[in-house]
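Regression check, zinc ion case 269:
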Amino acid sequence: MLIDTHLHWDAEEYDADRETLLAAARAAGISAFVVPGVAPELFARQAERCRDVPEARLAWGVHPLYLDEARRYSEALAGERLDPPAACAAAMAQLESWIASHSTVAIGEIGLDRFVPSPSLEAQRPWFEAQLCLAQKLGLPVLLHVRRAVEDVLQTLARFRLPGGILHAFNGSFAQAERALRLGFVLGFGGTMSYEGSRQVRRLAAELPWEAIVLETDGPDIPPAWAQDRRTVPADLARYAEILAGLRGCTVAEVIERTGENARRVLRL
Ligand SMILES: [Zn+2]
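Current build output:
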């Protein structure tokens, strides 16, 4: 199965032509895609845009770059200003109650991002850990956003007992990749592989054991090398499978089988 493990299908960038994009994805052989959540106030919209799309598998979480939105939403619901711990606790209650009544393959997209100046890593950390606690409690895998924070994330994951998950758009070292694998995680590869200059990512994709690798587009973000001026579309995944086959010197069929097997194992699809 050709599975996209990270696609923001509910993004506004797809509003104008979602039907056409879905038809193109089907024609390209994509059989399932995982749609990560980013903020509680957007969950209803995400559910609505994935309704009647049998390929969509939904995840729910608070993305590290949406903490302000989540705090403001919690304050709006509470009708008062909330200090950071109270805002986080309120969002976790919203997340847990949403999951209780909606189909869920994972908690995500959650993580740590040291690339952005704000929110700070210290502000992000309690939200990340609270969501890992919830994933542990519910026995759910997690979808991780990790930018310039692989070490922090690996150390944090090691303190929890999680059923595993995916480090999306992985860009760490071989040693870090192996530690992630030992913790039960797999690594997402997509558009970055299409750039000749992305030597480390291409080497990881070529040389890591098969068990480590899943495919993703991260659409509409991370445009492919052949179309840097446009959004990433779901059908791009088929070309990423070809690129991975080229890097590993195997057939596209093998890429589809191995990566699909990994995605189904980790996310229990
Ligand atoms: Zn994402």
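Comparison notes: The domain at 2-267 is CATH 3.20.20.140 (TIM Barrel). Residues 6, 8, 36, 109, 145, 218 surround zinc ion (CB under 6 Å). No diff flagged against the previous build.
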